[in-house]
Every structure is written in C-alpha cells, then in structure tokens.
Amino acid sequence: MDNKKRKRFPYLVLRTLFVITICTSAFIAGYIARSPQQETNTAQAQTDTNKPFTLLQEVDRLVEDNFYKDVPSATTREYAAIRGYLDALEDPYSFFSDPPVTQNQSDSLAGRYGGIGVDVKRNEAGLIELYPYPESPALAAGVLNGDILVAINDQMLNPTERLDIIQQMLRGEVTDEGNGVSITVEQPDGTNQHTIEIPFAEIRIPSVIWRVISGQPSFGYIQITSFTSRTPDELNDAMMGLADQNIAALILDLRDNSGGLLQESIQIADAFLDGGTIVIEKSRKSGEKNEVATAGDIAAGLPIAIIVNGRTASASEVVAGALQQNRRGFVIGQRTRGKGSVQFIFGLSDGSSIRITAAIWLTPDGTPLDGIGLSPDIEMIPDENGRDVELGEAVRQLSQLLVTES
User: How far apart, in Å, are the Cα atoms of 345 and each of 66, 317, 357?
Assistant: First the structure.
C-alpha cells in the first residue's frame, strides 16, 4: 500500500465509524423517544378493553373519519347498535322500539288514545287504506272503508312510510280548542280526491266484546281481543250485563288474542277460579313463583267453553291454560301458538323503549308451553269457507253438559 493510501485509510475508518455511531444513536434516540408513547398507547388499550363497547366507539370514530358518503345521524347509528346488541341475545321477544312505535304500544296497552279512530292497512299495491272504527270521528267525518290516504296536513304521503309512523301522525292530544288533523283521501280507483278536517277525540279500543248467542239466549259469549289495563273492568261490565240475561253457560273466545299485559291476564283467570294455581313464572334471578287464585268465581260456577286457535298466544294462553288445568272449563279449537315467556318493557330517556324477556311461564302442572302451545280438549279443523264451526261445537258441548247436570 502506498503512503497516500495509508494516510487515507484511518480517515475512512474513522468516518465510517462516525456515521455508524450517528445512525445508531439516532435509532436509539428514536426508539427511546417513541417508547413512552407506545407504552402509553398499550396501557390505554389495555385499560380500554376493560370498558364496555370500546370497540364500538372505535368503529364509530373510524366511520366518522373515513366513510365516503354522508354518515347517518348519531341517533340512527345508536339505534342500530342497540338492535344489534339485543339480536345477540338470540331471543325474538327481546327487541328495541323507537319513540313512535313505543307510543303506539303504550296507547294500545292502555286501550285508549287521542286520534280520529281508523285502522291503517297497506294493500297489495302498496297503497295506504283506511278503515274507520264505529262511532269514530273519522266515520262521522265521512271516511269510508278502503279510502286511500294521500296526504296528512297537506303533506303528500310517502307510500313506503312505516304504518306505525302514519298511525302516530293521525293521533294527537284531545284539547278544549278542538285540535285535529287534515287528511286527503281518494277512492280506490284514484277518483274523488278530497280533503277532510277531522277533530281528535278520545278513542277507546274495547278489549272485551260480549253478547248472548243468537238463537241461544241462555248462552253468554265474551270475546277478549287483547289484555289491556281496562280489560278487568270491561270483563266485570260484561258479566254484569250477561247476569241480567240469566245465562246458564258461558263461551270465552280467545281466538286471535296475541296477549298483552300479563298481570291483567292473571286477574282475568283469577276472576273465573275459586282457588288453585294460575301460572308459574320461572326466571334466572327469582327462581319459580306461583300465582295463586284468590278472587272468587265471577261466573258463579257456570260451565265454560274456551275457544282458541293458532294465534292465541302469551297472556291469552295463561288464561286458557289456567282454566283448563284447574278443570274450570274445556278448551276447544286448535293448538295455541306457544309463546310462553314474559317481557318487561323499559322506557328509555328519548321516548324509545326495549322489551326484555325476563321469565318463562309454565302451566299450573309445571308444563312449559314456549314453542309448543296448549293442546285443546276438543281439537277442530278450521272450516275452509270461514264458518264458525268452533262456536257451534262449543254450544253443542255446553248444551250436553247442561242436560247431564240437570
């Protein structure tokens, strides 16, 4: 190696070592500078994972920051999250209801509301049809069965609007000033479009319908369409009216009754029993609880036939099962739906609500009916032409009982 190269060699070595030292120092400095932040993030992540719904909040921030379209409102996203949460319970009877639906449910369970008194249906063509209740403001104002609803308060109606929203728009507070609603309707063929001003009135939805059987004046008939807060009082009125007719037997019709308030159904069963278990509730927290009859028999020992079908469910199954298994009456018709669970309704701060299945119920002998249904004593096939063969059979069976007892 010549002298010139020997002189440059230490210089190159020193230069290389200097560069390596600088890079290494930078790396170490960088690592040390980042390390506390990484530790903080890690500690934060560990802390966050102990909090509920951390991932949900993380996803919500990412959507807000990155989604390419307009992001739905916070309320819409929150409602969707609640529905997903309840779906995870894998229980069809635990669900969320937004404020308009909650209000409708509350009104229905109370058996009364302020409005114009119409049933709202969507036909096969997707049009909204109106069916006024008897003696309702809508009927008095000229609304006809099958009228097509076009607009509410001069606002054209979106045919895809949810029915519960439309029903809520046709309801309102009854005031001394006589507030109401303006609706535009037309005939089913699209003709004769006109606008009607209809005042709100208190609409009472009867849950108990009663009469004597045509051609059989000694047979009383009571139909309970649902169990509301007013059902026990309505039953008392019905029985008083039938007592004035000197009936000798009673038919209790629970067909198409999908349920309602459990406690009111227990009161109805209690009214027909002179003792015995009405229903057994079983839950994760409170174990088993027996509801026992105490009220005394409002029907004074009259023979009772209970008519049910595949749409008899929940609270109405409580009544049918209690009377059947306490041998207070016989059940006729088709196997019931088998909805043997109890839901609690909880109102939320914005007017929405959730239903949570809190217990299952068992018949007095301890048989669960959820998903199975109540088996009638006399099983019948519905008439394909719509004739009420179940009612006719109930009359015949009761007639035979009365002859045997005499």
Answer: 37, 20, 9
Distance separating alpha carbons of residues 158 and 295, to the nearest angstrom? 51
3-state SS class at 159: coil
Alpha helix stretches (DSSP H) within 170-304: 231-243, 262-271
Low pLDDT (below 50) residues in the chain:
3-47
Identify the DSSP state of 195: E
Asked if residues 315 and 267 have their Cβ atoms less than 8 Å apart, the reply is: no
CA atoms of 257 and 245, how far apart (whole Å): 26
**Cα separation, 182 vs 170, whole angstroms:** 9
CB 100, CB 169: distance < 8 Å: no
pTM here is 0.64
Query: What is the amino acid identity at position 82?
Result: I
CA–CA separation, 234 and 228 (whole Å): 10
DSSP reduced 3-state for 199? strand
Give the chain's largest Cα–Cα span. Answer: 141
256 contacts 226 by C-beta, under 8 angstroms: no
Residue 406: per-residue pLDDT: 66
CB atoms within 10 A of CB 348: 14
Tokens encoding 57 = 């909040």
Give CA separation, 66 vs 76, 78, 345, in Å.
18, 18, 37
Beta-strand pair 353-362/95-97:
antiparallel
The pLDDT score that the predictor gives to residue 284 is 85
What's the pLDDT at 371? 87
Distances (CA, A) of 258 to 68, 218, 255, 262, 281: 45, 29, 8, 11, 19
**Gap between the Cα atoms of 329 and 297, Å rounded:** 12
Structure tokens given for 325: 């298994």
> Could you tell me which residues come within 8 angstroms of residue 150 by beta carbon, excluding any fewer than 6 positions away?
156, 157, 184, 185, 186, 193
Please give the Cα distance from 176 to 179 (Å, whole number): 8
Measured CA to CA, the distance from residue 318 to residue 231 in angstroms comes to: 15
Helix, strand, coil % in the chain, rounded to nearest 5: 35, 25, 35
Both structure tokens of 81: 């999250």
- Count CB neighbours of 123 within 10 A: 11
Long-range (24+ apart) CB contacts under 8 A made by 269-272 are: 269/293, 269/318, 269/319, 269/322, 269/323, 270/294, 270/295, 271/232, 271/235, 271/236, 271/295, 271/296, 271/297, 271/298, 271/299, 272/297, 272/298, 272/299, 272/304, 272/323, 272/328, 272/329
**Contact status, residue 306 vs residue 329, Cβ threshold 8 Å:** yes
